Amino acid sequence: MRIATYNVEWFSGLFDDNDALHNDDAWSSRRDVTRAQQTAAVGHVFRAMDADAVMVVEAPDSGAKHDGTAALEHFAARFDLRARKAVMGFANNTQQEIALLYDPDVLTATHDPQGVPTGPEGATGAPRFDGVLSIDLDIDATRDSVVFSKPPLELAVTSVSGTAFRMIGAHLKSKAPHGARDDAHAMQIAIANRRKQLAQAIWLRARVDAHLADGVPLMVMGDLNDGPGLDVFEDLFGRSSVEIVLGTQGAHPLYDPHAARALSQRIGATPTTSRFWIRQEKRFLQALLDYIMVCPDLRARNPRWRIWHPLDDPDCWRNPALRDALVTASDHFPVTVDIDL
Questions:
Q1: How many other CB atoms are there within 10 angstroms of residue 300's CB atom?
Q2: Among residues 246, 211, 252, 210, which one has the least CA distance to residue 228?
Q3: Which end of the chain has less neighbouring CB within 10 Å, N or C?
Q4: Using an 8 Å Cβ cutoff, are 64 and 19 in contact?
Q5: Do residues 242 and 291 touch, judged by C-beta distance below 8 A?
Q6: How far is 252 from 250, CA to CA, in rounded Å?
Q7: Which pLDDT tens digit goes with each residue over 1-53?
């Protein structure tokens, strides 16, 4: 079975008020890319992956005016994808949902949130992901309230062969220091925002620990927007969100080979899953942001990971149509794992 995670930049912008694809020559939200060009590119990538299930990060908006699952299923029908059934969890107000697009002939997937619901006062431990976590962020003996701007998607999954396991799709993100009065204020806001992101990682890790302590096979995937050596806050906080979610120092570690390689060295080449244009410097920055982490039980099922990087993966490079589609579709590239389920 092939399982993927793919952050499609501003996927929501490709759909109209009826959740149908625009597919026209108006500009998309991607730099110098029309909606028709991005739609064709995303479709090409999905067809090339031919995955049994894709965790879509930045999935189409869902709420009072839009139905993200309908939009994804319209997209799947347009490109005749096997992965044609969509499931979504708690909607958010960022226009960047988390959803699973999957082949119903191969597996079933149900939104199955765990943890206790909370009120505004929050709860400690691992409450339901649409609630509030009460945690002391800055060791001042005062509890702070933390919420997910994009609540992780928790799924109960069963393959056609009868293998039952869990998936958690996540998109952790530290907000930019908007409204800063000066550089010092910007740094203060940035540090506070990073503390909140690390608290979200701790919250997510607590759910992972609960499942693995119960012997439930689990994979965690998505865009953690953080990683070893990624920014100036690593020395300040000691660990990145990735290390917290992996649980490298705990009793129930998860594994991702790309994260393991990055964590094993301070200097040297590391895998990358994203490519961003830095306007001020007029160059691209590449980073490792997207992961598929598996528990020991799933690691024993012969997993084979792949980053569909247009420049680094030889098969992608040798296929000009796929190479160009990967660059046009998003600022992230898919990560897949082929695993015996």
A1: 11
A2: 246
A3: N
A4: no
A5: yes
A6: 6
A7: 999 999 999 999 999 999 999 999 999 999 899 999 999 999 999 999 999 99
Side chain identity, residue 18:
N
For residues 36 and 28, give the distance between their C-alpha atoms in angstroms, rounded to a whole number. 8
Q: How far apart are CA 179 and CA 277, in angstroms?
A: 23
Q: Identify the burial level of 260 via C-beta atoms within 10 angstroms of its C-beta, where 0-12 means exposed, 13-18 middle and 19 or more buried.
A: exposed
Q: How many residues does the chain have?
A: 341
Residue 317 has phi, psi (to 5 degrees) of -65, -40
205, 191 in Cβ contact below 8 A?
A: no
Q: Which helix (H) or strand (E) holds 87?
A: strand 85-88
| Beta-bridge partner residues of 7 | 57
Hey, how many other C-beta atoms are within 10 angstroms of the C-beta on 129? 24
Interval 46-102: pLDDT, tens: 999 999 999 999 999 998 889 999 999 999 999 999 999 999 999 998 889 999 999
Distance, CA of 96 to CA of 9 (rounded, Å): 9
List the domain boundaries for the chain. Answer: 2-338
CB 68 within 8 A of CB 96: no
C-alpha distances (whole Å) from 211 to each of 43, 166, 253, 292 are: 34, 9, 12, 17
The tokens describing 71, both together, are: 């939009």
